[in-house]
Amino acid sequence: MAYQAGGQRPAPRPVAETPEIQAYLEDYAGLLETAASPSLVVDHCWDVVLANSAFRSLFSAVGPHPTAMPGDNFLRFVLFHPDAPAVLGDHESSWCLPMLAHFARVVETHGPDHGLQAVRRDIAQDPIMEAAYRHGLPHWIRSVGEDAVELDGAVRPLLHPDPRRGAVECRIVAETSRTLEELGCTRLTFVLRDARRAPSRDRRPRRTASHLRVVPAAG
């Protein structure tokens, strides 16, 4: 059976009240729909402002979660959703730690922010993730280099729900227009490509309460 992309395109989430901005976002949503690769627009807190059908299809098998749905806040999905490892290949090292490091950097540059502080409180409630945030990240960044924290150009594994795709890689392309930049938003596109080699791990990771299994001790 052919893989089906489900659902109609939702209205863009409002980030400004002016009719001009809303019209721009509606047209930008149409632009996203022309992209074959999963693509979304996020604000500085990773709240999803816009997403295309390819993005929603990529996460179509994800179960419900009160705060960490991929179409609501992608950072929370990566860090807190128990289904994240079923889509994000090599979840801990390729997605969770880089996103956690990116979040730590944003917290330092943005200062007090209600959305960011809410994520920080949730991290603190997970002992393993809190240990990673406070102690593991500096060691990890020293081991892999500062470039691992950057989003644009990163190549990361995915486990696509379409059986014709399966295990793939995606290159993350981050870009912003002048208007999106003024809104504090960035467009992220996951450019899919065939994986260089099949992963040796199970393609259906077991759901666990905490995603981070091992946190390297700070050296």
Q: Specify the structural class.
A: alpha+beta
CATH class descriptor name: Alpha Beta
Oligomeric state: single chain
Spans where pLDDT lies below 50 across 5 or more residues? 1-12, 198-211, 214-219
Count of separate structural domains: 1
Kindly report the spatial arrangement of strands forming the biggest sheet: 2-1-5-4-3
Q: Which percent band covers the strand fraction?
A: 5-15%
- Percent in helix: 25-40%
Could you tell me how far the N terminus lies from the C terminus, measured between alpha carbons in angstroms? 51 Å
CATH-defined architecture: 2-Layer Sandwich
Shape: globular
Give the SSE order as H and E letters. HEEHHHHHEEHE
Instruction: Please describe the biggest sheet, giving its number of strands, its sense, and whether it closes into a barrel.
Output: 5 strands, antiparallel
The CATH topology:
Beta-Lactamase
Total number of beta strands: 5
Number of helices: 7
- Gyration radius, rounded: 17 Å
Question: What is the typical, i.e. mean, pLDDT?
Answer: 85
